[in-house]
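Example record

One chain of 923 residues, shown exactly as stored in the release files.
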Amino acid sequence: MNLYKEYIKEIEERKGQGLHPKPIDRADLLNEIIAQIKDANNANREDCLKFFIYNTLPGTTPAAGAKAKFLKEIILGQEAVAEITPTFAFELLSHMKGGPSIEVLLDLALGNDSNIANQAADVLKTQVYLYDADMARIKDAFEKGNTVAKEILESYAKAEFFTKLPEIAEEIKVVTFIAGEGDISTDLLSPGNQAHSRSDRELHGKCMITPQAQEEIKALQAQHPDKSVMLIAEKGTMGVGSSRMSGVNNVALWTGKQASPYVPFVNFAPIVGGTNGISPIFLTTVDVTGGIGLDLKNWVKKTDANGEVVRNESGDPVLEEVYSVATGTVLTINTKTKKLYNGDKELIDISKAFTPQKMEFIKAGGSYAIVFGKKIQTFAAKTLGIEAPLVYAPSKEVSVEGQGLTAVEKIFNRNSVGTISKEALHAGSDVRVTVNIVGSQDTTGLMTAQELESMAATVISPIVDGAYQSGCHTASVWDKKAQANIPKLMQFMNDFGLITARDPKGVYHAMTDVIHKVLNDITVDEWAIIIGGDSHTRMSKGVAFGADSGTVALALATGEASMPIPESVKVTFKGQMASYMDFRDVVHATQAQMLHKFGGENVFQGRIIEVHLGTLTADQAFTFTDWTAEMKAKASICISEDETLIESLEIAKGRIQIMIDKGMDNKNRVLQGLIDKANKRIAEIRSGEKPALRPDANAKYYAEVEVDLDQIAEPMIADPDVNNKDVSKRYTHDTIRPLSFYGGDKKVDLGFIGSCMVHKGDMKILAQMLKNIERQQGKVEFKAPLVVAPPTYNIVDELKAEGDWEVLQKYSGFEFDDNAPKAAARTEYENMLYLERPGCNLCMGNQEKASKGDTVMATSTRLFQGRVVEDTAEKKGESLLSSTPVVVLSTILGRTPSIEEYKLAVEGINLTKFAPSHKLLVG
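Predicted structure tokens for this chain:
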């Protein structure tokens, strides 16, 4: 009983942290617990019963297998446990969500004891997490004349697992809690620096917002026991930055309902709101948990007598309050009228939160149950030879006669599954689509693995062309947390069928490449749909959606995803880039010019940015598509010229071949299959059979933005504006400032070149600039640390082959060593160049950070409070985001450069250039 003793020791340690026993997922531990339950005189028996009943993880965990086996023995009378009757054993099986429990239930339902078979069938009729092997058993038994199998199929065909669920309450009482003013990043709900604990839900829950906020939430719950606490982003958007399942899990843990009395710390039905609504990718995660997300619109732009927007001294619109949602306000959500009330006073229409599909998610406790339920109903009706009755709300299908298709509409139409309309579908249609490429990253991967286990999935869907598990978010430091979590994750995902960054067998060298770069390389068809466990899943080929760990799990397990076809905003370009400008400046200027054109309204939010880059290869174009996460877009699509796309696919082929040469392909030869698909696509383009993806000339867009390159006269910097008097304007990514704003004298404490925003060209720019500076000044001397983390090992290898890595080595004071990775996070930086291991590094902020209170100049994507740099009592940390040359020069000078200093430093350097296509990129 050594494992049990270790578990008891762990429980005592967790008590000291104010935590309950950790849920059990190991079969060997649970078997020791079962042995003590069987021993009527065992001193630990009572505790063991509690652990077995209330603290064992369901699904396909090894522990679930041991639990299901023991419950089967009890039902069959092979074991007798006074506290667990056969009836109670069936109840416990009903809460185990598939996998071993379904196997046991089918054994019993299709067995010879009719009484047991009927009880098992009753439980099976409530279950939805069945897979092909499970359904094949039922079908086989039905075809052999088994009456119980027929009853089960008849119930499934009627979707009784859904129709017999309780109806949604007509009125839902909530009490408000202002979680913050302005946009609320998911980092506030689930901090990146606590990513290691995400799979331990109770422990991770302690990091949500602040301990003080948690106490306030508990006080509201004590004061209003009959109401749900609704977390609100006042004057902002809730859940910006990422999908982050762990953020929704934390909100549900503190404010939601327990999903099962026999499964600890898994809650559902959180309720969140924002003045400007919920970030689209975060809202998808809310749907996964059967939650509600409200667009409150409780502040609006103030207008004068002429209807003109009133602006403050900074030129920003002045807001006025329409109604109050101050902490402690009691409101009523009416799901029938779909209105929000304060008492009898109607406040706002909230029908967008209660579409027929969202109502189904709420009723079923989450979107997964609907996806699986529809699949089972279809199977059952087909097996019985009948037409499935209409139970679920029909998908909304919008088709406008004579209207062309945007790029995303074309992709969704090609990948759609089960649509009724024979006409092409337009934006607003609810579509189920096949997914081609799936990515899982390492800080959410453990949760994705848990989700796969909970939905009883054991192997990747054959529909998926390729899937990758990264190691980039834990690349900086190979500490005890990473050593405990990552090998286990890689083994699980490798067994599941993914290409993994680390080889569980140790054959190939560990890769810590940034996930988005790898996904961009393995996407070999611009018609592809990509789902990835990170908000920067924004490929420059195909259309990619950042998603929560659960949606990633669903895509891996089923090869499908469901969502409305989003509206699109078309972005085109005119003019010419100045010789001293970098493409990163074009990216920032796009956002600034869009906001200016639309009076501060972000027309990108929640929509597809269809960007007509045309002449940029996928590597370079990714700098734009990646930043669309910061633009709050749902996703982006890059429209390329034929020859540019062919060049991008050839680059992708070369990099995939390197992965194969390293030994990363699996028994299904997934990587070779991607090369074959790339060759086929190249042949289609060259022959004219199927040119590069184009929108139709008569497609309809929500808005169109033409970026004037001639207006971009100096480097553009995204500023967190940490001292803005209006708190809601801080940390938004919407404040884009020219370099001259800083007057050449803003102190810079640290520079960072890395993250998914940079490509090989950026590394070459760095090398060229250092040579330039040495030639101009006689030496390279840093007045601030410069941390450099190349995105991928492929890029490092290419830089070595081309001679640039040797240049960087010459000027560096530290170079990563894979044979001796850092075991602890760096806490102090010297004024020198650090060549760090490929990966996310400072951009993630979960392992290493800048010193508190620093002003950081970075090429990365995140400027949220506390992400890259935390505050001190005296000074707020700030992360300003800019191009590679601005970062390099800022660390050489220890301050922001003047425009004159900048121009001198980039003379003769091959910056990332962009010229608008002269071709009309429409079909």
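Notes: The chain has a mean pLDDT of 94.
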